[in-house]
Amino acid sequence: MIDSDLIISKAEELIRRASPEGRAAARRRRERRKQRAVRMMRRMFLLTLAILVAAVAWGLIIGPIGGTGVMAVALGIVLSWVGTILFTAEPEARAEQLPQVPLKALPNRTEQWLDTQRPALPAPANRLIDQIGVRLDGLAPCVQHLDEREPAAMEVRRLVGEELPELVRGYQRVPQQLRRQGPDAQLVEGLRVVESELARMTQQLASGDLDKLATQGKYLELKYRGAEE
């Protein structure tokens, strides 16, 4: 028997990937993977070079390293590569850790966390997550020189590190069979508000209007406790 919901979901996913926001999100994911690979290769090269230089220096100063020394050098190179691979791997982003992430890294970490939540969200929400990803990508340069103690920084952290993750997690706490009775629409509407708020924040940060951002008071109440009840 054909599952019509699955077919619709697959069709919506294809449409989302074909959208400009979906392509931009895929491009950012590729760029992040490429940057991690470059960092890993650079560290592996430097560690290998250091081990070989140390082996040559040992041979010149102390004496030939012999067969055992060659094996030790080879083992050291392999172990350094394994360690580099393990320590270069980016840790999984967790919602409960986002409030403690440095502000400079918060937009990117939140976007990475959102990407991991896609399978548990309805298709319309995934399209909005693509748009939010674009907004977070634009917000990231604006917070690089923002003092963590400034009220404007607190507002960014509240929206990006607390309210947005809580909106998604609140939806996920609703039992599956009850989500189509209202929570789906509430999640989509909440994500739409987040996207517009991120656009406003980015514009005000880019223009240097920090006081307006800090005092505007347009906080989002995205808890949707009613949906959970």
Structural class: mainly alpha
Total domain modules: 2
Estimated helix fraction = over 70%
Rg, nearest Å = 24 Å
Kindly, what is the distance between the CA atoms of the first and last residues, rounded to a whole number of angstroms?
Answer: 34 Å
Q: Show unreliable segments.
A: 1-8, 222-229
Tally of alpha and pi helices: 9
Main beta sheet: none
Silhouette: elongated
Averaged pLDDT, please? 78
How much of the sequence lies in strands comes to: under 5%
Written as H for each helix and E for each strand, in order along the chain, the element string is: HHHHHHHHH
What kind of oligomer do you see? single chain
Structure report:
The chain is mainly α and 229 residues long. It is 72% helix and 0% strand. The chain contains nine helices and no strands. Helix 1 packs parallel to helix 5 and helix 5 (123-139) packs parallel to helix 7 (183-206). It is elongated. Mean pLDDT is 78; it is low at 1-8 and 222-229.
Layout of secondary structure:
Elements (H helix, E strand, L loop, with lengths): L3 H15 L1 H42 L4 H23 L17 H12 L5 H17 L11 H22 L10 H24 L3 H6 L9 H4 L1
Keywords: Membrane, Transmembrane, Transmembrane helix
Protein name: 5-bromo-4-chloroindolyl phosphate hydrolysis protein
Organism: Sphingomonas changbaiensis NBRC 104936
